[in-house]
Amino acid sequence: MRYLSVTCMLFCFLLSNVAMKAEAFENGASNTPDSRTQQVSPGQFKESYEGIGLTDDTKIYLTLTSRYRLRTNDYADDQDFYQYLRVHTDAVKLGDGTVRFAAFARFADDIDGDHKKSWGDNYYYYHRDALDTQLGYDDWAPRLYNGYAQFDGVIKNTVLNVGRFYLSHQNTFQLDGADASVKLGEMVEVYAFGGKPVSYYYDVDDDTLFGGGINVKVMEQTKVGAEYVRLDVTDIDDDYTKFRLDQAIPNGNLVLAYTLLNDAATVNAEGTYEIVSTGTILTLKYEGLTDEVDYENSYVVNPLTNTLLAESKYSKYEAGVYQAFLKNFAAGLTYETKAVSGTENFDNRDYSRIKGKFDIYGLPSENTYVSFSVDYWDVKNTPDSDDNERLQYGVQVSQKVGRTMDVWAGTSFSRYEYDYINDRRKDSVRSYYIGGQYQPTKILSLMADLSMEDTEFYDDVDTSLDKNYTAELWANIIF
């Protein structure tokens, strides 16, 4: 792997800068560093410790993160650098309530650049991504993930967020605007929000989003909620309504939800129950689309929600069981099936699926974790997919070394890849990865992660493109 020498040099550079790292393996799959979960969470390292005193009662907390990424194959290299800044404060007294501030921003650059690197030069197109596109018209590709002030109790019984933030009600839209929640006694809460949707890829100057909702604690174990959102985005004017019932039961809970997008409705139901005597956890889920969603309502890359994609009616069922045993072991098995009653396509068709997981904790040493996963799909054929059976499997091993270091390694297998030239889905791609986190001091943490992708995607073009490598280096300074 010829990029290792470059990796070592950059690692020394990052020691003097900054990092953040979420788990490399999460929910049974390799976690990509571009995912928002990694940008928001530093994984096993705390975001902030002591803080910097602003006043006798108030502190500001900072996390500076530097990230270097190298991608390479037999044809080309690509080096990117990202700088993240997160900041928040303690609550500051204001009138009869408090106010606190939080922000999270990013800057980035392509170290190589893509000037005069195109399809015909050296296959550099393989590494072109959203960052390269943004840098074409915006130096340092700035992004503001959130930046808001929260006023709690400044207006009696009211929590008010103003700025850029994620709604934390039934929907999680990202919004530039305001969100106010008001408690009407112990049983009822109402809220309203409005502003502009946030998109890092599209012009949303003329788009708006507003709505509101209510949560009622009907009984000690029962809560109901309703929410309405008016989406006025490019080429779409949609009414988006949701209802939800939460019911606690002995040793478990039940959830029932109903979503209405214009005339298309979805029903969701799920329940969890624990057999206390054996420690067995049982889960049941149902999801049903009761109406057709046509292409006239479809916004393919929608910055707000993915419920607008064209789909036929379907019903999806899932049942699972999870069992811990012999102190060091746990196993899970899930069965899922989907039945489509209308027109089918690659993304919406009948299938049956069996997922299994076997975890080992504390063997052979106290701080060892080993996880095996398997995922079998039996999917109905479509014109662009020949084989209707897929078997995915993976394994992850992680080990804590002393109090300051965690290391991991693993492999995962992905289902499909899409060949946009021939407009067909292909398989397969397997990823191998190894990495570690090191925290030498309370304020500094470091991460390195190396991965290799072994793919059949380019077999029709050039088999030498089967191997693609990625090196990630992070440094995190926490105040």
> How large is the count of helical segments?
4
Distance N terminus to C terminus?
A: 36 Å
Look at the helices and sheets and give the structural class: mainly beta
The low-confidence parts are 1-50, 297-307
Query: Looking at the structure, what is the overall shape?
Result: globular
Taken as a percent bin, the fraction of beta residues is: over 45%
- Could you report the average pLDDT, rounded to the nearest whole number? 78
Radius of gyration: 25 Å
- Major β-sheet annotation: 22 strands, antiparallel, barrel
How many β-strands, per DSSP?
28
State the share of residues found in helices, binned by percent: under 10%
Structural overview:
With 479 residues, the protein is mainly β. It is 6% helix and 57% strand. The protein is built from four helices and 28 strands. The protein has helices at 4-15, 36-40, 119-122, 130-135; strands at residues 25-26, 29-30, 52-53, 59-72, 77-89, 92-94, 97-110, 143-152, 158-166, 174-184, 188-197, 208-219, 222-233, 236-249, 252-261, 264-275, 280-289, 314-325, 329-340, 351-361, 368-379, 389-401, 405-414, 417-419, 424-426, 429-441, 444-455, 467-478. The strands form three sheets. The protein has a 22-stranded antiparallel beta barrel. It is globular. The chain starts with a helix and ends with a strand. The relative contact order is 0.13. The model is unreliable at 1-50 and 297-307 (pLDDT under 50).
